Every structure is written in structure tokens, then in C-alpha cells.
Amino acid sequence: MRYELLCLASASAGILSHLLYFIRGNKAIHAPPWILVFFLVAECFLYTRSIHYLGALQGFLTATVISLCYFTALFTSIIIYRIFFHPLRHFPGPFFAKVTKFYSPWMARDGKLHERYAEFFETYGDIVRVAPNELIVLSTDAQQKVHRASSRCSKQDTVYEVVHYQGYKNLETVVDRDEHRSRRQVWDKAFNTKALEAYETYAREVVYEWLGKMASLQGQPVNTSLYSLLIPFENMGRMGFSDNFGSIQKGKEDPMLHYLEVTLGSIGKLGAMYWPIALLNAIGGSSDHVAFQKLACKMVDKREKIMDEEKEDILKYLIQDYRSKEPKAMRDHMMIYAEAQALMVAGTDTIGAALAFAFYVLARDPQVQKKLYAELEPLYGRTMSGEFANHDLGEAEAPYLNAIINETMRMYNPTCSNGPRSTPPEGLEVDGVFIPGKVDVYVPIHAMHRSAKFFREPNKFIPERWTTRPELIIDKRAYHPFLLGPHTCVGRRIALIVIRLVLAYTTWYYEFEFAPGEDGVAIDRDAVNGQILKAGKLECVFTQRA
Ligand code: HEM
């Protein structure tokens, strides 16, 4: 066949493969490796065929041009379809976001994807197309319809498909509803009343380590963002694995925290573009990710060796289920490894971000500290002599403390651009607007929390909006720091226990302020959203109360 005809046939094949294959369903995981294999095979085939007639160099060039015709036609067809014919074509959004998912890593490049989403709502309205098949929605109606228990939206065909440990999913990434339900039962059991009492004791133990550290650093600048991370890390060691890392005493990041940050950061930087994650998994993962997985597995192995039923921790419940005659969920030992990784990821950085920003809002305003101290006075020693108890720090007993926590998590939510859900095949109606089926939808927490649609003066820290000034909240349903529905945060209660105790004890024993030279700008400016928000640096000086 003549050269021109071959090019034409190749281009036609490109268009046909789009219309017959790529256009149907989500091909984000399988298509890239296929395209690569196809290219190499086609190139080799054409090359061996043309080398005979044209010689090595000319044969190679001819083969390349013919195969490029295929890809140029394929991608041109995809782009034209996405702009003019895609079911989401009428939704507004940045032009390049409609054309290619490669726009997502660009949006997420500086770790400010959550802020960019909030800006998009200002520019484009309440529903914005942020990728060829993705929408972000600013609406309490969407929040309910996407996340509530009866929702037909699912995690299938989304980024969750590629997050696993050697093929084993964890509670958060499992996409099958029934599988999720049975795992959730095991996890929920790990947060029963008796277990929570034990976890509170661990949390208090960690608080005392933190108080001890502060006593040794009196008058010196303390890297408060770092310690805000070490506190939940230590807590997770005890509550998750009955282990003690000693990181607060050392005063520096444990390697585990480093691996955690790099692993999460690289996913965050991709802006939920997930075929590179699938590809990386297929070739064994990045060295940091593998190191993180190994450490988490080692912690499981260590816990299993000393399997002590008396010791309350989350692993105890997962292992118990695995060792039972008829496991509810943990049918394979690998599942425990996968869950242990989820535990480290979900339970450390989240509390870390909440604490860092809580210290920030307290340190910058002595009046807030003073008011909190006054509230704490009658609560100190109320149930336990010489101690604070979570029981006495609830919303009814300590409204101002909880208002500070709520307001901090409203403004600086740790999971600020939470995960997507795929709409059911029949589509979904949100605020009277029809969203087609099989579309990835996000209801981004940060943008919801900072929207003037739901909160008056949304960018101002006003804890009183949760107490004496309720008029500053237009729609309370928009506040969902732990999400809602079947995937609501399983660690919500322990997260609140840790945050309450840390803030109560610290404020009780110490007055704190920005360290000399600290202007309080970096914590927010340099905060990076790598799936979970990581606060920028903040240095404070802590002075023991007289
Ligand atoms: C301030 C602290 C925390 C915040 C703001 C937070 C927030 C969230 C959010 C928003 C989700 C839903 C994510 C999604 O599906 O898009 C979630 C899920 C989850 N969280 Fe948390 N979390 C916190 C602390 C914790 C802690 C301490 C643990 C562990 C003990 C934990 C374990 C989990 C797990 C395992 C899930 C998956 C639940 C499921 O899919 O059923 N979280 N969290």
C-alpha cells in the first residue's frame, strides 16, 4: 500500500478506536499501558516491514510517521469530543480542564488545589468542570445526595481503584459496598466504649510527654507545627499498635512520618490523576512508598508477636477478627497490612494539621487563650483529680473549646479536598441541575467551609459563631469536617478526644505566643494539600503559668 494511504488508514483507525472503545466508560487505568504496548508493537511491525524497502533510517521514520498518524487522530478525536460532544460540555470551567486530565496536576502543582477549587466557584458558579469527566459542586443538596447512606454514588471507577497494598484495599479505598460494610463493623468495634477509655488514657500519656518537652524548651522557640504532628504520631503508635516511638522526646520527624508525607504528597500533586499511580504500583511503587509499607507491616508483625488481649488497640480488633473461626472482614492476613497503612495515613496527619492551626489561632490572640482558660477552670479535676477528662470537655461543658476546634476545622480542614464519588448510571439531580451518570463528583470540604453561601464572613476566625453568634452560620449542614454517610470518619471520636486534651492541658499549664521573628504567615502560606493538609512552619514560645 502507498505511504499516504497507510497514513490515512492509520488515522482512520485512530478515530475508530476512540469512537468504538475509548469513548465508553472510564479507561484511566487500563488505557495508558495499552496505548504504550500498542505503540511499541505497531512501531516494530511497521519498522520491520518498511526496513526491507527503505533501509534502516528511512524505514524507522516511515514507521514512526504512520504510527503517529494513529495517535494524532485518536487524540484529536478525543479532544473534539470532550469540547463539543461530551455530556459535561455545558458545564463551565477552565478550558484546558475540559480538554485533558493533565490539567489536574497543573492545578495541584503548589499544593493549593483546595484554594483553587474555592476560587473556581467564585468564577464559574456552583458546578464547575475541573477535568474532562469531573465536576466539583458547591451545594448541601449535592453533599447529601453524593455521600448519604442511601446514595447510589460510589467509589467505583475513581482514584480509589488504584490505592491498595499488593492488591489489598483498606477501609477507605475498598469500593464494594458490602465489603466496606463488613470491614466497617470490625473498625467500629475497635472504637467501643471500653477501647475509647483506653485510648483516652494513651492520649493523656502523650500529652504529658508533650508537656514535659515544653518544660525543657521553656522560653525557646518551639517548632509547633512539627510537634503538632509528633503528638498524633505518638498517639497512633499507642492507640493503633500499642507501640511507643519516642518521637516527642527526640523532637524530630520519625522516618515513618517522612515516608508518609512523600507518599501522600506525590498522590496529592497528581491532582487525582490516577493512571500514573496504577503504573507505579504495577512496577513496584516508589522507594519511599515501599519503605512506608514495609514499616507499617513490621508494626503489624511486632503487634502480632505480643498479641495480648488485655492491651486495647485497634490492631487487637483487626487481628481478633482475622483469627476468629468465621472472620467478618479480615479473611486474609494481607488485609491487616493494608488496614495498618490506612490507619497511619488517616490518623496522624489529619490531627496534626488540626492541632497546628489550633495552636496558631490561640497563639496569635491572647484574648482567645484567656477566654479558654477561664472556661477550663471549673472543668479541671471535675471527674479525675488533677486531670482533664474528655467527658468534661464536650460541647455542653466546654462550648468555647469546641467552638475553637470547630472554627479551626472549618477554616483549615485537614481533608480539604476530600475524595470523589462516581454518579450512578442514571445520573443525579442536584439543585435542579442534571448531572449525567458515571461522572466523578467532588463536594470539596474546604470550599464548602469557606463559602459565603453558608457562612457569614467566611474567611474570618470567629469561634463565637458556634456559640453566641449563630447568625454567622447560614447553613450548618455545610460544615462536615469528617464527611457524612457510610464513609464518615471512623476515627472522629478519638480525633476529638486527642485535640481537646492537647488544647486543654496546654492552655491550662502554659501561655504561648509567636516566637520572636515569627509573623504567623508561613503556616498558611506554605501549607500543602497532599491529600491531607500539611501546615507550614510556626514557631511559638511557651511560658509556664505562674
Ligand atoms: C481531625 C482529624 C480527622 C479528620 C478531619 C478526618 C476526616 C476524615 C474524612 C473527611 C474522611 C472521609 C474521606 C473520604 O471518603 O473522602 C475520613 C475517613 C476516614 N478516617 Fe478520618 N479524619 C480524622 C482523623 C482520623 C483518625 C484519628 C483516624 C484513625 C483512628 C481516622 C481514620 C479514618 C478512616 C479509616 C477513614 C475511612 C472511613 C471509611 O471509608 O469508612 N481519621 N476521615
UniProtKB/TrEMBL annotation:
Co-factor(s): heme
Record-linked SUPFAM superfamilies: Cytochrome P450
Keywords, alphabetical: Heme, Iron, Membrane, Metal-binding, Monooxygenase, Oxidoreductase, Transmembrane, Transmembrane helix
Binding positions for heme per the UniProt entry: 489
InterPro entries per the UniProt record, alphabetical: Cyt_P450 (IPR001128), Cyt_P450_E_grp-I (IPR002401), Cyt_P450_sf (IPR036396), Cytochrome_P450_monoxygenase (IPR050121)
The organism's taxonomic lineage, starting at the top: Eukaryota, Fungi, Dikarya, Ascomycota, Pezizomycotina
Protein name in the entry: Predicted protein
Species in which this protein is naturally found: Hypocrea jecorina (strain QM6a) (Trichoderma reesei)
Signal peptide (residue range): none
Similarity remark: Belongs to the cytochrome P450 family.
Pfam families in alphabetical order: p450
Residue ranges crossing the lipid bilayer per the database entry: 5-23, 29-48, 60-84, 342-363
Superkingdom: Eukaryota
Molecular-function annotations in GO: heme binding; iron ion binding; monooxygenase activity; oxidoreductase activity, acting on paired donors, with incorporation or reduction of molecular oxygen
